[in-house]
Design brief:
heterodimer, A: 316 residues, alpha/beta, Rossmann fold, Alpha-Beta Plaits, 2 domains, 11 helices, 15 strands, elongated, disordered C terminus, B: 221 residues, mainly alpha, 71% helix, 0% strand
Chain lengths: 316, 221
């Protein structure tokens, strides 16, 4: 399947530090891709580079096979972009925002827009400045979807929304995804959102794409090994896939990517009293993966050879 | 598309333009006994004993009010987009960045010039009406005012450039605006109107080129 988004060694520096470092990302048509990362991991910068809002210092990015630095208006019309914070002109009413946006899109679907606004219970006479964050997000989404885009790029679309509104917003997003198999790239640091929606995830750590794999595969390949000792626990031996290890009393906890028999043998060689391998949900896996001592972070590409199952694609 | 863009810009700029027109008319025709503080420094024109366009009051006030108006328009169109974070929304519209910015410039410059022409026309019309002023009037007497109104379009462009160009306000950001202000003042000394017009056109072309270049190459982060 053709890649709708493709980047090659995309890099951006701010004040001499890499905000995005050698990003190689491929999102095939119809994929829902969740770009994860902690604050300042480089998610927004990467997205802005994809849309030509920020210029890369090196590397290149393509959307629909076209250089992102100079997207033609026709190509841009195929892409909907929801920027972080849902910026809209606050002096406009929703109707005015619609009338401003509509003429730019030859594929504008007014019926769909009316349906979505109706679904959200938004009146076209409402002033944007009087809308809550959640309602503004809904207006942004409505405007984006009414243009019938083939690609939706959403930069932290649920930030600042309360739990209920977030769930409704995601529900709407899922409905949209189900229409005509659109490609969606969205960034978030709310793992529950990503788990519900994304087929595939990428995790940016300090600007480097450390993980690029199917969502389920990431969960399946990361394990916490809990070792209980009678006395002071030893250090967990350095090995491929070890993300972090820490002592908690007489317990040694190690987080391992691509847990295998090799790791089990290593753990058993420490002669623990109890050895337990714990599965992790996406949120725990993400937290463990991104907060560990940075030097100990394995790059998935390097681990790929050691991971028995396929599906993981190193991107760093 | 362009109509949507023009209409949006007009809606955003009309309050600034309306305010400027009120100040023009009030200074020229309100003839208040004691104007409020910020306007006390400006000479009032249009008094019965004045020589229209020649006694100096008009050009002085007109230059100050129009200058402030031009800068306000240029900054309103750029800084407000940055402050509201709407550059990202606007520049993703599928029209092309150059055309979007060009539409902004056309609306801003056009609106500025129309508003600036208004007091010249009204004052000139009053001066041309017999019995209003105790001196003869020729439309050629308005030439300096027209020259200034056109030259101040460059100041508007300078303000637009300062607003769109990333940089520190207390630093290099205002440099283009300051440079343009000096050039506009110098242009006023050019006696031959056509030469002055050519100088404004050249300055304007450079500024528009710079604005489009900056708009195309800067980061909107």
């Amino acid at each position: 399947m053709a890649d709708v988004i493709a980047t090659h060694r995309l890099t951006k520096y701010y004040d001499g530090k890499p905000a995005v470092d050698g990003l190689d990302l491929r999102v095939p048509q119809g994929c829902v891709y969740g770009l994860l990362g902690r604050n300042a991991a480089g998610k927004s910068t990467a997205i802005k580079m994809l849309l030509g809002m920020v210029h890369a210092d090196c590397g290149r990015a393509e959307l629909f096979g076209e250089d992102c630095e100079c997207l033609r208006p026709q190509t841009r019309a195929r892409i909907a972009y929801l920027a972080e914070g849902h910026p809209l002109y606050r002096w406009m009413t929703i109707g005015e925002a619609v009338r401003f946006t509509r003429p730019f899109y030859p594929t504008w679907n007014q019926r769909l827009l009316d349906q979505i606004l109706d679904h959200f219970g938004l009146s076209q006479k409402a002033k944007v400045r009087r809308l809550s964050n959640g309602q503004r997000a809904q207006v942004s989404l409505s405007l984006a979807v009414a243009a019938e885009p083939e690609l939706l790029i959403l930069d932290d679309p649920t930030i600042g929304l309360d739990t209920v509104v977030r769930r409704d917003f995601l529900g709407s997003l899922i409905q949209i995804i189900q229409r005509r198999g659109r490609t969606i790239l969205f960034s978030s640091h709310i793992l529950g959102d990503v788990e519900r929606v994304a087929d595939r995830i990428g995790i940016l750590v300090d600007g480097v794409l450390r993980v690029d794999c199917p969502t389920e595969h990431f969960k399946d390949s990361i394990r916490k090994v809990v070792l209980e000792f009678a006395g002071e626990p030893p250090q967990f031996p350095a090995c491929p896939g070890l993300v972090s290890s820490q002592q908690v009393g007489r317990t040694l906890e190690a987080v391992i990517v691509g847990y295998s028999d090799e790791h089990r043998r290593l753990a058993e060689s420490l002669s623990p009293r109890v050895l337990e391998v714990v599965e992790m949900n996406l949120e725990d896996a993400f937290i463990e993966y991104t907060r560990g001592p940075r030097r100990a972070l394995p790059i998935f590409a390097e681990e790929q050879a050691d991971v028995a199952s396929d599906g993981l694609q190193g991107a760093a | 598309m362009l109509r949507a863009m023009v209409s949006k810009e007009l809606r955003e700029l009309l309050p600034v333009a309306a305010f400027a027109v009120v100040v023009y008319l009030w200074l020229g025709f309100g003839q208040p006994a004691s104007p409020p503080w910020p306007l006390q420094v400006l000479p009032i024109w249009g008094r019965a004993e004045d020589f229209p366009f020649l006694s100096g009051e008009f050009l002085g006030s007109f230059a100050v009010v129009s200058g402030v108006f031009a800068v306000a328009l240029g900054l309103r169109q750029t800084v407000s987009e940055s402050a509201r974070g709407t550059w990202l929304f606007l520049l993703h519209r599928p029209l092309g960045r150059r055309r979007l910015i060009a539409a902004k410039l056309l609306v801003g410059a056009g609106l500025f010039w129309i508003c600036a022409a208004l007091p010249i026309l009204i004052y000139g019309w009053r001066a041309a009406t017999p019995g209003k002023f105790p001196c003869p009037f020729e439309w050629s007497m308005t030439l300096d005012a027209w020259k200034l109104s056109v030259a101040l379009i460059a100041l508007y462009l300078g303000a637009f450039l300062a607003g769109i160009r990333p940089g520190r306000w207390v630093g290099t950001r205002l440099l283009p605006l300051a440079g343009v202000a000096i050039l506009v003042a110098l242009i006023q000394f050019l006696a031959v109107p056509l030469v002055a017009l050519a100088a404004v056109a050249a300055l304007g072309t450079v500024l528009v080129g710079l604005i489009l270049f900056v708009a195309q190459t800067r980061d909107y982060s």
